[in-house]
Amino acid sequence: MKLASYRESKQHQLTDLYVAAGDRTYVIGTQNGLFPDLGGHVPGEMGGVWNHPIKLMDGYWLRVSDGSAAQWLEQADEFTNYPFYNEHRYKQLQDLQVEVVRRQFCPDGLEGVVVSYTIHDTRRAGDRTLSLDFLGRTDLSPVWLSERVNRFDGEDHGVVDPKEGVFIGKDQDNPWFVVFGADRPFREGVVDRALFGPETTAGAGVSGQLTYEHVALPDGGSVDIHFFIAGSCHSEEAARTTFVRLRSDHLRLFAEKRQRYEEMLEQTAISIPDKQLEKVFNWVKFNTDWLIRDVPEIGRGLGAGLPEYPWWFGCDNSYSLLGALPLGQFELARQTLDLLRNISERQNDKGIIIHELSTCGATYHMFDRSNTQETPHFIKCAWETFLWTGNLVFLRQVYPAFRQGIRWLLEEKDPDGDLLPEGYGIMETEGLNLELIDSAVYTCEALRVTSLAARLLDEPELADHYGKLAEKLKTVINEQLWLEDEGVYGDVVGTPAVILTKMDDYIADIRSKAGEQAARDMIGLKEQMQQAAPDEQRAWLFKNWVINTPMETGIAPRKQAYRALERMESAEFTGPWGTYLTGPYRKAMMTISTGVSAVAECRYDRMDEALRYVKLIASTFGQVVPGSISEMSPDYGCFVQAWTVYGMVSPLVGFMFGIQPAAYWKEIALRPRLPQDWEEASVERVAVGEGEHRNSLNFFITRNSQEAVYRFSLDQPGWTVKLNVPCPAGATIWLDGEEIGAERAEDEANLAITASRTHEVRIVRT
């Protein structure tokens, strides 16, 4: 599908939000074209026009007049979302006998927004002229946590500059500016703090209204008018310069962004039998791009979600980037990881990865301390980034953080020396700062990959040390955290004496959120603890989704994994839209909990079950924003969330197509395992490696009851492809038309094809 075919529309529930996104600026309002006060981090201020680390405007509105009637555009009848811009269509302007389409987009790399209106005559009674009033409400104000860096909001003031045809707004206490105007001169400009259009917004802003007269509207024809909004947190000159650039180059900037999105669509282009899922997969590419935040004074990286979490997280990105890498987002992955690491190193010398970073440079931690699982998870993600990019310089830069982080995990966070770090995990449940399964699992992974990094970087003794600790911790997890009677892993290791002091709070919390029925599981768990020896150190089952992490990472033995996965698939843990965040609630579901379930199934070749989870995520597509998937399934929380890319891309590209690169060594492992009903699938232009290790893979699979055919090609020669494919007993193996022998084990065949370029492998059943 071409980019032009990607459009999603709504004509109902238009009070839902939307975003017109750029890496420097974005616009958030409602799909009916309004800008209500919304959000919690900066109360009532998370919408409008943002240019991080500041907000520019609460919103903008247009009034149309033809001399006999005047009307504000305040209730669009239809909203259409495109991959990089959106439109509001006003069809019911009967008094004026016009239809209006408002479009907005944010150019790449610029601190500005382009807002365009197309006004179409429906009267058909001769040419006429219109008068237009464009009202912009400033709210030049700082981002969340700015008080920690001594930035405070001041009252806004504004002036009009008739010579340049613009309004200029400034915060009285800070060098924060916004400039807006049109592609034509205005007749009159008004500045007034008490001036509002069709809605009133809070804050210390000021309104500027620019009036444009004698706008010619042909009989039955249309007229376009373009407005430009530019900002700066440094100077008026910078904002004016951006405004001039937008006004002179907006058509070219739109074309350039369209071209970039065309290229994004063509990168890692899948073709699968489920065309709806294929479409959603591609929209998730676009969604991920919407969340890139570039703040030159702080850094560039992938934000978490809109409207509430536009900034950067350690936890979220350790999932999200694993989905972004197969899409070719190598630079974004490195930039994000470098940003997190650099800020973390400024705050501590222990390798502890921060939890949350606002765009003003201030950090935030739940319960005033870092979550334990984020540091090992970061290590795992950074290693995967190295595998995809082959960038040894990057690995050398992050490797010291690997070692420091492991030292912190196994010394400061593991006082009893059992290899199970203590502290808060992903669930961020107050008081649950014990030895948690997600921290243990990701620490095991961190030890494994740091062992591999140490060996590559000529530290064999450390490599052996870390490798042995990883195997030891893997055993601890599979023995001490496995609950044989339950057939799943426990959430936490601890003694009843410690955990019982927290149980009444947990029970009260569950009861308040999900009712008495939901509280019964925790009441039963409390009774178990009361019957156990007070100092008995053992695992306990709180039924949080993180008990899937041993399967997600593949450290669970197959027999245990099958039992656990089958229970996790049941109604006890999985609801109509995905995996519950916690079993006792049986209420809240998230794309990340469901995505982890999908990856966990893939690890054990349960592709039909994995596909079910991926499709559950996809089933929530468009329920709030056309073209997007909400953080909380099916339709609440952030209306776009970065870690959704993990649940959509990793199962498909990493496991169903089975693409696992080792770019530094110029190797690609292909281990395709398709869902049962898929007879054909392909993926093209999968980027692997950077610089001298750069390559691109195309992979095609067809199969029927008689044979399976695997065709692949690489842009650059000389690489080794290690192919593992299903191969039933008695089947013959053909490589490029010649029958060959191959290593076989348990209905699989392994081939290593060196100096690869274009090859076909055929498995023929006899």
TrEMBL record:
InterPro entries: 6-hairpin_glycosidase_sf (IPR008928), 6hp_glycosidase-like_sf (IPR012341), Bac_rhamnosid6H (IPR035396). This is Amylo-alpha-1,6-glucosidase. It comes from the Bacteria. Residues 339-495 form the Alpha-L-rhamnosidase six-hairpin glycosidase domain. It comes from Cohnella cellulosilytica.
